[in-house]
Amino acid sequence: MSFFACCKSQEKNTKNTLKKSIKDYHNICSKSDGGKRKYIAEEENTRNGKGNITSKIFSYHELCVATKNFHINNMIGEGGFGRVYKGRIKSINNKVVAVKKLNKDGFQGSREFLAEVMILSFLHHSNLVNLVGYCAEGDQRILVYEYMANGSLEDHLFELPPGKKPLDWHTRMKIAEGAAKGLEYLHAEAKPPVIYRDFKASNILLDENFNPKLSDFGLAKLGPTGDKTHVSTRVMGTYGYCAPEYASTGQLTTRSDVYSFGVVFLEMITGRRVLDSSRSPEEENLVIWALPLLKNKRKYTSMVDPLLKGNYPMRGLFQALAIAAMCLLEDANARPLIGDVVTALEVLAMRHVQVGKQKHTKETSIEKGECS
Which ranges carry the Protein kinase domain (predicted)? Predict the structure, then answer.
């Protein structure tokens, strides 16, 4: 755990990107569905340099053409929100995009749709997915993103099909670092801070070079400002990833995201889902299974994803599990800031480059704690 002692918080350049949108955002969320639709229509009429939302507004017809009428052969994903299709937008040089069509009966409604549009229209970072545009024609709610060639992190961690190569240790650490940088941007550079609230493997998308980008901001919440320590809100998110204090009280802070990061990072190290009913009862919940093992360094190697086949730096494993353990602390105030997590992961990646891959060879040295 002492690994964090060497991690210094770095001062961040603040940006005023969200300041002008906060009042609008709160006003929109309090409107009736009819009022929300009217707002979007007004934004469409003023989008040529005057409106707040800068993303392109597409007609439903244009997106039908792009996806060949949302043909099943173009479907690349599906969730509670609806389906995602691959398409090409003729008006943008035949640009390849991912088109998310919200299910009218799904979990995401007008509020989540507006949150996504507002946040991704004002926040831009290399580790946040780029919102190309949206459609709010009639009762249609459609979001258009940049296309991410390697799908989600979840696709590369669990139930891999025969012949699919698992992620190596270095790629996992780089993905973790990039995802943490996305959270750091939301927490430290957005003013006011944004709490992501739905950090999980399926929401981390990967480009052709496996660079990660956070997606799906429908549950994102503006963080506390001034003297406030938290925001109180209805408990939302995915079971297993939610921080315990948020799940029990509804009090949300940026450290709630840090806990969720710890869960996903543990998934990346172990290759296990956070909840897996196919395992024995004592191993169904990843965090409950892992916490006792994290207190015993002799057990660390037993936690590693078998698909890695021993190809990982021993010191890197110890430090990675130390980071995960810090993020998963029950006391939210004891968890590190995401900026410290980023610094730790940067050091971890750098050390990986220096030592390269190495297989653990002597269990006796581990038992003596020589790799701690």
Answer: 70-348
Which is nearest to 269 in space by CA: 345, 351, 183?
345
CA distance 340 to 15: 20
Give residue-wise pLDDT tens across range 6-54. 433 332 332 333 334 434 444 444 444 445 444 444 543 443 344 455 6
Convert 16-36 to b/e letters by CB count within 10 Å (16 or more is b): eebeebeebbeebeeeeeeeb
What strands lie across the sheet with 75-79, from one edge to the other? 56-57, 131-135, 142-146, 95-102, 82-89, 75-79
155 catalytic, yes or no?
no
Which residue is catalytic, options 139, 168, 198, 340?
198
Distance CA 182, CA 211 (A): 11
Indicate the annotated binding residues: 101
Domains with residue ranges and CATH for the chain? 2-12+151-367 (1.10.510.10), 31-146 (3.30.200.20)
